[in-house]
Design a protein that fits this description.
The structure holds two protein chains of two kinds. Chain A is an alpha+beta fold. Chain A is built from four helices and 22 strands. In chain B, strands 5-13-6-7-10-9-12 form a seven-stranded mixed β-sheet, covered by helices on one side. In chain B, strands 1-2-4-3 form a four-stranded antiparallel β-sheet, covered by helices on one side. The chains are: A alpha+beta, B alpha+beta. Chains A and B meet through β16, β19 and α4 of A and β1, β2, α1, β3 and β4 of B.
Chain lengths: 318, 225
C-alpha cells in the first residue's frame, strides 16, 4: 500500500507534535513537555477511538493548513478553534469536538484559536511518528522529538499511520468555553521568603499576562513580590505550574517545557485542575491568584477528572 | 537526615536535606533517588511521573489519579536512610578541554578578578577532581564541584544571550558544561567536544549521572572533535 500523507501548505505559528509527555527522565535534564492543554488533547483522541496517548498536532493561535495528498483519514480538532475544510464538494466551516472524514485532495485550514491559545488536531490511528524515551513530544530547543524536534514547517510531509475505514462520525455537544479569571495556588517551597504584605497583594491584585509567554513559561506583571531572604537558592527540581520569582520580583509561571531545575525561589504553584485553563489565557489578559489548601486542590483535581469523564460519556454518534 | 518533606504542588513533594551543599548530603539525596526509582520501576510505588535529585533536595512528581502526597510522604518516612546504599560506584570520566582564547571567553577577565595568571587558573581547574552533583536545567547539563577556593567567582553581571555549545564555565564553587546553545551567565573558561546528550542513544542518552567523577584533560584545538 502506498504511504498516506499530508503536505504542509502553511505551518502555523507554533505547531508541534505532542502527546501526554515524556516521564521518568527528568533526572537527565529532560522536562516532561507534552500537550499544554491535556484535556483538549485527550478529547481529540477519544473522539477518534485512539489510544489516549496518541501523538497530536498542537498549534497556537494560527494553526497549519494541510493537504491530504494521499489516503483517506478521519480528523478531530479540539480547543476553541475556527477552521475550514475544502473538498470537491466545496468549503465548510468546521466545528471543534467532532470528527470529519478527509478524502484525497482535501485541505484542512486551521485559521485561529478563538479567545484562547492552544488547539489540537488528531487523526484516526495517529500520525506515523518516532518516539524518544516513550514519547513523541517535541522540544525544539533540545532537538528532541520527530524530525529532530523541529516545529512543523512548510512543505513537511506528515505521514499517516493507517487509512480510515470507519464510516461513523462522533461529536461532543455543548462544550462551553467559560471565561476564567481566578487561578488557584498552593504555597511553594520558599513561600516564607516573601513579605506578608507583598503576598497579600499577590493574592488580591490583578496580574497581566505578557507577550513573553510560550511553552516554557508565562511572565506576568503586577505588584512585585518582595523577597526578604534570598533571591537565589541552590537549584532544585521543578514541576509545571511552579511560580518562580527572580530578583526583580516579577513572577514567572513555569509551563510544560520548563527547565528541569531552577535556582529562583518559588512563591507557589498553580493547582493541577487550573493548569489547562491557565495556559489557554491570551497575553494582555488580567488574571488573579487565589491561595487554597492542599485538600481543596486535591478535591478540585477529582472534579477536573470527573468533568473529563463526563465529556467522554457524552460523546454521541452523528 | 531529611529535615522536612513539603508539598510543592498537589502532584509533587520536596524532600529537604538541609541548607548546605556538599557531597555527603548529595550522596544521601542520590541514594534515596535510586531507592525510590527502583521501587517505582517495580511499580511498588504507583503513579510516579518523575523523581528529580538536586544538590540537597529530592522532588517527587506523581499522578494524583494514582497516588497522593500523604501516601508518598508515609512511604518515605518509613525508609531508614542509614540503611540505603550510599557507596554508589559512580563512573569516572576524562573529558578533553581546550582553553584557547577563542573558546575561553572569560578567562582574561578572570585573571583580573581572581588575581591569578591564566596558567594558574588552568592548572587549578585541571587538578580538580569534579563530582557530579546533579543533571539539570537542560538535557545532559551537569553541575559539578567543588572548585578550589582560589577560583570562586560570581556569575556575569549580565548573562550572554547565547553561549556556544560545549562551553565549560564556572561560578561559585561549581563548574558546568553547556550541552546546547542557550543563554547563560557563568564564566566561560574553555570548550569541550564531548556530546552530553545523545538522542540517538535510546537506552542511555545522558552521558553523566549524579555521583560520577570527572577530570579534565587539556587538549589542542585540533584534538577537539
Amino acid at each position: 500500500m502506498e504511504q498516506s500523507y499530508f503536505e504542509v501548505l502553511r505551518p502555523g505559528i507554533n505547531s508541534t507534535f505532542q502527546d501526554k509527555g515524556r516521564f521518568g527522565v527528568q533526572y537527565m535534564g529532560l522536562a516532561p513537555g507534552g500537550a499544554m492543554d491535556y484535556q483538549s488533547f485527550l478529547l481529540s483522541n477519544v473522539l477518534l477511538n485512539n489510544d489516549k496517548n496518541t501523538g497530536a498536532i498542537e498549534f497556537a493561535y494560527q494553526g497549519p493548513l494541510i493537504k491530504l495528498v494521499k489516503g483517506k483519514t478521519k480528523v478531530a480538532i479540539t480547543g476553541n478553534v475556527f477552521f475550514k475544510i475544502y473538498s470537491q464538494k466545496g468549503e465548510i466551516n468546521g466545528e471543534p469536538y467532532r470528527t470529519y472524514d478527509l478524502n484525497e485532495g482535501d485541505q484542512l485550514d486551521i485559521l485561529a484559536t478563538k479567545a484562547s491559545v492552544y488547539g489540537y488536531l488528531s487523526i484516526e490511528g495517529g500520525f506515523k511518528l518516532d518516539k524518544f524515551c516513550g514519547s513523541v513530544s517535541s522540544q525544539p530547543r533540545a532537538f528532541i522529538g520527530p524530525n529532530g524536534g523541529k516545529k512543523i514547517e512548510l512543505k513537511d510531509k506528515i505521514l499517516i499511520f493507517k487509512n480510515s475505514t470507519n464510516k461513523e462520525n462522533k461529536i461532543i455537544r455543548n462544550i462551553k468555553f467559560e471565561e476564567k479569571k481566578i487561578f488557584r495556588v498552593l504555597p511553594g517551597p520558599q513561600f516564607h521568603y516573601f513579605s506578608t504584605a507583598s503576598k497579600k497583594q499577590f493574592f488580591s491584585t490583578p496580574y497581566l499576562i505578557t507577550k513573553q509567554t510560550d511553552r516554557m513559561g508565562m511572565r506576568v506583571i503586577g505588584k512585585s513580590l518582595e523577597n526578604l531572604v534570598n533571591s537565589n537558592i541552590p537549584s532544585e527540581g521543578i514541576i509545571k505550574g511552579a511560580i518562580q520569582v527572580p530578583g526583580d520580583g516579577n513572577p514567572i509561571i513555569l509551563l510544560s517545557d520548563h527547565p528541569t531545575t531552577g535556582g529562583y525561589p518559588k512563591v507557589g504553584s498553580i493547582i493541577s485542575s487550573d493548569y489547562d485553563d491557565l495556559i489557554q489565557q491570551n497575553s494582555n489578559k488580567k488574571i488573579y491568584f487565589q491561595l487554597v489548601t492542599l485538600e481543596a486542590a486535591e478535591q478540585e483535581f477529582l472534579l477536573y477528572v470527573e468533568k473529563i469523564k463526563k465529556k467522554i460519556t457524552n460523546i454521541e454518534k452523528i | 537526615m531529611i529535615k522536612k518533606i513539603t508539598n510543592i504542588s498537589d502532584q509533587g513533594i520536596i524532600c529537604d536535606f538541609g541548607e548546605e551543599v556538599n557531597k555527603d548530603i548529595n550522596k544521601k539525596v542520590i541514594s534515596l533517588f535510586n531507592y525510590l526509582k527502583e521501587k517505582s520501576n517495580k511499580d511498588e510505588i504507583k503513579g510516579i511521573y518523575n523523581i528529580i535529585p538536586s544538590y540537597n533536595k529530592l522532588v517527587i512528581h506523581f499522578d494524583l489519579e494514582k497516588n497522593n502526597s500523604h501516601k508518598i510522604k508515609e512511604i518515605i518516612s518509613c525508609i531508614d536512610l542509614k540503611k540505603l546504599n550510599i557507596t554508589q560506584s559512580g563512573k569516572t570520566w576524562t573529558i578533553p578541554i581546550c582553553y584557547d582564547d577563542e573558546f575561553a571567553l572569560d578567562l582574561e577577565n578572570l585573571t583580573k578578578s581572581l588575581k591569578l595568571s591564566k596558567e594558574e587558573i588552568i592548572k587549578t581547574h585541571l587538578d580538580t577532581e569534579f563530582y557530579v552533583y546533579m543533571i539539570g536545567f537542560m538535557p545532559g547539563h551537569p553541575y559539578m564541584g567543588d572548585l578550589d577556593k582560589k577560583l570562586f567567582t560570581s556569575r556575569l553581571q549580565s548573562p550572554r544571550v547565547e553561549v556556544p555549545i560545549g562551553s565549560v564555565a564556572i561560578a561559585e564553587k561549581f563548574c558546568i558544561i553547556y550541552p546546547y546553545l542557550s543563554p547563560g551567565g557563568w564564566n566561560i573558561i574553555g570548550r569541550t567536544s564531548v556530546k552530553l546528550f545523545d538522542t540517538k542513544n535510546f537506552t542511555n542518552p545522558c552521558l553523566f549521572s549524579p555521583g560520577d567523577t570527572i577530570k579534565f584533560k587539556k587538549v589542542n584545538k585540533s584534538e577537539l572533535k
